[in-house]
Amino acid sequence: MGEATDKLKAAGNKAAGAIKEGIGKATDNERLEAEGKAQKAKGTAQDIAGSVKGAFGDKI
Fold first, then answer.
1. Which of 10, 15, 26, 40 pairs as cysteine with 47 (C-beta 3.0–4.6 A)?
2. Which pTM was predicted?
3. pLDDT per residue of the chain (60 residues) written in tens, 0 to 9
4. Exposed / middle / buried, residue 35 (Cβ in 10 Å: 0-12, 13-18, 19+)
5. Chain centroid offset of residue 9 CA
6. What is d(CA 17, CA 26) in angstroms, rounded to the nearest whole number?
């Protein structure tokens, strides 16, 4: 995967995670809230991976 792909997936995971987290908070659903936080963290990791790939020219 390239930098753009990682960053696109990161944005999707961050958005979906934020939605899940918000719904979980609004409905007092701790499980859904935790899933949302985990998905946002996954998106952050993908974003970092994309940035590293961009810095190294997709050579990794």
1. 10
2. 0.81
3. 578 888 899 999 999 999 999 999 999 999 999 999 999 999 999 999 888 888 887 555
4. middle
5. 7
6. 14
